[in-house]
Every structure is written in C-alpha cells, then in structure tokens.
Design goal:
CATH superfamily of the largest domain: Glycosidases
Number of strands: 46
Distance between the termini: 46 Å
Mean pLDDT: 92
Shape: globular
CATH topology of the largest domain: TIM Barrel
Radius of gyration: 28 Å
Number of domains: 4
Helix content: 10-25%
CATH class of the largest domain: Alpha Beta
Low-confidence stretches: 1-26, 173-179
Structural class: alpha+beta
Length: 800
C-alpha cells in the first residue's frame, strides 16, 4: 500500500546500484546414476530393478527400470557421508507406457528411512520429467549420516514399470529454497501465516518443554469450556484436505477436548478427541470434511475447547497445519474457442515506475522493458504522487531533486513505445499544476499521455492531504471537478480517473456524510459510496475509476493463500460495476475500470515478493483479471529497492532473504539473478498475450492448477496458460480443445524451479525454456512441473 511504497529506502536503492554480491562456496554435484551407478553408489532395492534398461532412456544409453510391487522401493545406497554443501536430490523419471504411478521419496539416515518424505506422481505416461527435491524436505540437509534414498510405491498396489535416469545430489549454498511445507502452518514455534491467538484459555505460545519439534510448543491450561483458538481472515479451504497437529497430555493426561472449525465465525459440528495420553506426543490428522470445513470459502477459526466442564491440567500442542489435498489422478482443463469474451487491451501489461529509481533513464532499463515487451508505464510512483511537484522535481517539504524527473520518464516511455498513466498531485498540489503537466506532456513534448489519475489512494489516511477536510470524498469530488476542467481545457482528448475501493462501507472517514444507495435503499458512508453519490449530485462523471489491490498484510504472508487469492478478481469487478451503476445511473456505462497497482503484500515486502511464488501469483492475477472488464493492469513495480528486515520466514519458499516490490534490481548490466521471478514470468507472458487477442473460456477442475486461454488471430494460435501452484506435485493434465483445429505440434514456454535455481547457483539458464509438444488431436496431456508457469501455443487455433 501507499505508506510502505512511499517509504522505500532511497539509500538502499542507490546501494543496490553497485551490485554487491556475496561469495558462498558450494559442493560439486555428485552423480548417482548416469548409465550406471557412480561414485560408490549401490543398488539396495527391494523392488525388481534393471540398472541397464534400454527401453526408455532420458540421456546416454541406459536407464533404471523399476517394477514396483506394493510398498516396494528403489533404494540407492551409499556409505554414510556428510551432506553439508549439498542442496537437492534431482532425477528424471518417466511413467512408461501406462503411467499413473504414485511414489514416496524418503532419505535414509544410517540406513533408516527418515520421518519426512515427498510424494511424487501420478507419473505421466511416456514423458520424462525432472524432479528436484531439497534435501531439507527429506530431513537430510547438513547431516553426517546420509546413506541414500528410497523411491517407494505408495498405494499398496503393484505399479506398472517406470524409469529413472540421470540421478544426482547437487551442490548448493547455505541459502536455498526451504523445504516446501505442503500446506499451511498455523503454529510452528509461533503462530504463523496470518493465524492469530484468539484463545480464551490460558495459553503460552512460547513454551519450551515439552516440544514435539523446533524450539517451542503451545502450553494450554483450560478452565471449564475455555479454548485454544486459532483465528485467520476468511480463507478458502478447497486446496486443503486435513488438519494435522501433535498433542501431549502433559504430566497428568486425561484432558477431554473437542475441536470446532468456524466459518465466518460460526461454529461447525463438534469433533471430540479421545482423552489425551500423559507425557506422550500423538499425531492427529482430521479430515476437514469431519469438521464441516472442506471446500468452504470462509474458514476463520479453529478451536480446541475443554468439553467436560472441568479445570483441566496443562496440555501441549505443536506443529499445527492444514495439509494440502493431493492432486486428482487427472486434472481436466477445457478450452472453448467458440465463445470469445473480450479483446485483450495492451494496457493489461503495465508496470509502475518511480521518481526514486536512479537507474530508470538508462539503456539497461530500456532493454529490460523491451525484453519483456512492456506496454504501459505509470508515473511518478504511489503515495509520493501526492507530494511530488513535477515542475521543480521536489517533494513537498523536501529540498533534494529526485533521480527520475518527468522528462527522464518521458524518454524511456517514448523509447519503449509505452502508453503512459500519470498520477497528478491532489494531496499537496493544485489544478493549475496538473494542467501545466498536461500541457508539458501533450502540447510541448507531444507524448499523447491519455490517462491521468487525480491523486493516489486519497481515501487512505496514510496519503498526504493538505485539504481542510483531508481524505474527504466530498472535498475530493469538488476538487476533481476543477482538476478535470482545467486539464481538459488543455487537451480535451485525455481521460481522467478517480480513486475508489471495491465496497460501499470501507474508509468511512467522516460520519457526517451518509448517502442512500438508490437501488437497495441502504445507507452508507464509506469513501466509494459518498464519492460516487457526490459525482452524481455535482453532474460530473469520471472517465475511469482506479482500483488498487494487495492480497496480504505484512508478516502474514503465506504461499498457498497467495496462490489461491487471484480467483476473486471477477468478484471485485462485479462489485465496482454494481456501485457505478447504482450511483451514476446511465452515465456509469461510459466509466472504465482500471487497476493501476497490484502485488502480494501491502507493505514491508519480505522474501515472498522476490520468490518464484510471486511470479506464479503475477501470472494467475493477470489470467484472472482478463476474465473481467478491467481495462488496465499495472504491477507494482519495475524497480523499487531491496529490504532485508521484513518477513523472511523459512516457511516461505525462496532463496532471496530480502524483499523487493520490483521485478528487477538496480544492477547495470542486469544479470540473471538481478531479474526476479516476476520479471521472467512477465517475459513468459508475452507468448500468451500482449494486446489484440480474444480471451476465450478455460476451466480447470483443480484449484492449484490455473488455466487461461486466448485466441490470437494474427498468429493463428490458441495460447493456453497453465500455472501449477503445487510445490511438489506434477499433475497429469488432460487438455480438451473445443472449436479449434489444432496442428500436430505446439510450442511450450516454461518458467519454474530449475530456472529459479539456475539464477541462484549461476549454473544453467535462468531464462524461459522453449520446447516442442506433439499433439495427438483435440485432447492431449501435459504434466506441468511443480511451481511452474507454462504457455502452450497451439498453431492453427481457429474457431470452427
């Protein structure tokens, strides 16, 4: 949000320009299998294994063929060695003619299977896919007694033959992607991921003895009917299957508890626990369906309540989490090119820029923007807009010049042929200042800047506002009218936009301003309702309205939550359109809806912003907003500055232990690691759409597999965007095309874990990967890798 963006450290950004790097030593990769077992590795399997199979080979001349009976395993074993300096187990695997195998990967320590493992599969038939598993996910990172690993049959059934090739233990550095928590932690040494302690029992969330794992557990002392209560903002549970936790009855044991899930604060049916055992940690997993919370949009609470009406002795809870549901055996994606929904506007591919970016007016920036085929730029940057005086290049109350003045911005916008959005100073500026800016841009420099916003987030008390009634919607509309009059007197062709929020009650800054919705008869005093009613009363209609959206609060970031958040863009679009229609009447139809800021967290960016997860989120948000009437979509932002002191929790995926709203840092020239995953995702999306394409319906029946599609009449392709949001699973996706005559081959463009790891290690390519895919017809299968974004361009994609 505005406050955090305004306060980005200018000095940090300048320091980043020098591109300082740390040097960290890594181990050399150790080959396990490459046509044969290497480096003293041995076959200790209890599956039937052929180490020299020539039937299906990934590289070289042979692979490992595995015939797996129930619960049997391929076990590759080594004498004990220290894994310090190693990061991942990596191998290529193929489901053979049948596919469908489900396996469990477990590390062995001193020849005993570890407590943690990673599920893979169902494997795709006749398809080689690379699997990379952090050793930390196998409890084998930095241990001295690593003796190998199992690939174990995990269904209790005999599986068809599968194949393994090119197996290695790869070198790493101390900063690596953490083991993906396949779910969401509620408590792991502390309340986590936005979950809060709303208990009405006596709770010590930092108890140090006993603990199940880590350093702390929760000690709970319950008088009659009191409860340990976990609370979260309403969240969707479609991605989750079970509630899992460890519980210990303490010295006495015998406590009688029940568990309740709450939906929007309403308790669901009781789930009683058996009396707790004394001095024993017990793992309990409860299906969410048994709690009445499966596939619900509004889980808000989970409580553990004393149920016997007694004062219970202290008990302990640790490692509380929601487990991800496994992908279905087949994920079904349907694309229907017979029913185009809208034309893609180039303004959907925009980036925010900022006056504090000292590297903006450079050949490096122009090259980076052209590399991703950027289409639109917004200036001068968030909350600073309500302090910035463009004519002097000074911010209100400051005496230093900013590195990127308007002429510098104009140079890059012109060089990259980007449409421009300008946010004029409402908080400390004047209509005259804004009109002079229009004159400079469109009459003097002939830039043709078509879109002008009056202020930035002026509903928010974080925004600078020198008016007698600051953050007042009536004052805002009154002044908006004068801004628009003077600005359009200079250039009547420009569009002028007003800021709003997506509901009628938020940001009710003044209680003396109440309006009645003409359709519902309900009264409201929130910013948007009062602003729109005032527009109607004063006979003014904005050309467009401006909406900003950030998914999470700082400190409460969660990867799975973020990756399921973008589905609600249609809800916001519908709510905004309804408000416009309600308050503006017939004039509403000519008001455009724009989004000029979006990112994952509204302030204090942590490591999630620079992780692969944020790249996946960017792709998902773009795909989702294309399903709406939004005319523009701007990511916050191009370049912002690194911040190291925010949420860098090990429960968040990613190897950069710093946050940055930008898609690149300030290094010149920019290397692979200077381009964040959001940059590469944005670049990959140029193969999906950049304006002029037709959005067509695409559906997925699995919440962690995003699917979107466009019809590109110029290239004669249908472009399908797939986003695998699962950290470890490779789903088998069946894609059915309707209204399309596909050719026999398609081109794929992919970005995911291997590319992100290449940026970290400096080994391999960090860029988008292009490949070819053979199509058997109008239905085909594809197996997207964990945490990956893929565009499939299908030639001859014409509607019948």
């Amino acid at each position: 949000m505005a406050t955090a963006k305004q306060r980005v450290s200018y000095l940090v950004l300048l320091a980043a320009t020098f591109g300082l790097r740390a040097t960290i030593q890594a181990q050399t990769d150790q080959t396990v299998y490459d046509d044969s077992l290497e480096n003293s590795w041995a076959n200790w399997s209890w599956s039937t294994v052929n180490l020299a199979s020539t039937t299906t080979v990934h590289s070289g001349s042979t692979a490992v063929a595995v015939d797996a009976s129930a619960w049997s395993a391929l076990w590759l074993r080594h004498d004990p060695f220290d894994t310090t300096g190693y990061g991942n187990l990596t191998f290529w695997i193929n489901g053979g003619a049948a596919g469908g195998q489900k396996l469990h990967v477990v590390a062995t320590l001193s020849d005993a299977g570890g407590s943690s493992g990673v599920d893979i599969g169902p494997l795709a038939a006749n398809t080689w896919q690379q699997v990379t598993i952090p050793l930390a996910a196998l409890d084998a990172s930095g241990v001295a007694n690593f003796t190998g690993f199992w690939l174990q049959e995990w269904t209790g059934n005999t599986q068809p033959t599968y194949y393994v090739d090119d197996v290695a233990i790869t070198g790493s550095v101390p900063i690596v992607p953490p083991p993906p928590l396949v779910g969401m932690a509620l408590y792991e040494d502390a309340f986590a991921n936005g979950w809060q302690n709303w208990s009405w029992a006596t709770v010590n969330a930092g108890n140090t003895n006993p603990v199940n794992s880590g350093t702390s557990s929760i000690a709970v002392t319950s008088p009659p009917y009191t409860a340990l209560r976990f609370h979260h903002d309403a969240m969707d549970t479609q991605a989750f299957a079970t509630l899992t936790f460890w519980i210990n009855g303490g010295a006495s044991g015998g406590q009688q508890l029940k568990i309740n899930a709450l939906l929007s604060g309403t308790a669901q049916p009781d789930y009683p626990l058996p009396p707790l055992a004394a001095n024993t940690w017990a793992k309990i997993s409860i299906p969410l369906s048994a709690l009445g919370a499966a596939n619900k949009p509004d889980l808000t609470d989970i409580w553990f309540q004393e149920s016997a009406g007694l004062s219970e002795p202290t008990y302990y809870i640790d490692d509380v989490r929601l487990d991800l549901a496994p992908p279905p055996a087949t994920v079904n994606v349907t694309v229907d090119a017979r029913h185009p929904q809208r034309t893609v506007d180039p303004r959907m591919f925009g980036l925010n820029t900022a006056i504090w970016d000292g590297s903006f007016n450079t050949a490096t920036t122009a090259g980076l923007l052209n590399e991703v085929d950027n289409q639109a730029l917004r200036y001068p940057g968030g909350s600073i807009s309500d302090l910035y005086h463009w004519q002097t290049d000074l911010a209100e109350g400051n005496t230093y010049l900013w590195p990127t003045n308007f002429d510098a911005f104009a140079t890059i916008a012109s060089a990259t042929k980007a449409q421009a959005y300008i946010t004029v100073n409402y908080g400390t500026g004047t209509p005259e200042e804004a009109a002079a800016w229009v004159r400079r841009a469109n009459r003097v420099k002939h830039l043709g800047v078509g879109y002008w916003e009056i202020g930035n987030e002026n509903y928010g008390t974080w925004e600078a506002d020198n008016n007698t009634r600051p953050h007042d919607p009536v004052t805002y509309v009154t002044r908006f009218k004068e801004y628009a009059r003077q600005m359009k007197a200079v250039d009547p062709c420009i569009k002028i936009g007003a800021v709003l929020v997506a509901d009628e009650d938020s940001n009710a800054n003044y209680t003396d301003e109440t309006v009645t919705n003409p359709r519902t008869g309900a009264t409201h005093n929130g910013w948007s309702a009062v602003m729109l009613a005032t527009f109607k009363r004063l006979g003014v209609t904005p050309d467009f309205v401006v909406y900003h959206r950030y998914e999470q609060a700082p400190g409460g970031e969660n990867d799975i939550f973020l990756l399921t958040a973008a589905r609600t863009w249609p809800r916001d679009a519908a709510a905004i359109r309804q408000m416009l229609s309600d308050y503006l009447g017939r004039e509403a139809c000519r008001v455009e809806i724009n989004c000029t800021e979006n990112n994952s967290v509204y302030g204090s960016p942590g490591k999630q912003t620079t992780s692969l997860v944020n790249g996946l989120f960017l792709a998902d948000a773009l795909g989702s907003i294309l399903q709406t009437e939004f005319a523009s979509y701007f990511w916050w932002d191009l370049r912002n500055g690194q911040e190291t002191g925010n949420n860098n929790s090990p429960m968040l995926y990613g190897w950069r232990n710093y946050g940055d709203y930008g898609i690149v840092d300030a290094a010149t020239p920019a290397g692979p690691a200077d381009r964040y995953p959001t940059f590469y995702t944005y670049k990959l999306l140029l193969h999906f759409a950049r304006g002029g394409e037709s959005v067509v319906p695409a559906t997925s029946d699995y919440i962690l597999l995003g699917a979107y599609a466009v019809l590109d009449p110029a290239a004669h392709t249908v472009n399908v965007l797939l986003i695998n949001k699962h950290p470890t699973a490779t789903p088998n996706v069946s894609i059915t095309l309707h209204g399309i005559r596909p050719g026999t081959r398609a081109t794929t463009y992919t970005y995911g874990i291997p590319q992100d790891e290449a940026a970290r290690s400096g080994t391999g390519s960090a860029d988008v990967v292009q490949a070819m895919l053979t199509l058997p017809g109008g239905t085909f299968t594809y197996a997207p890798a964990p945490y990956s974004v893929t565009v499939i361009q299908i030639k001859e994609g014409r509607a019948r």
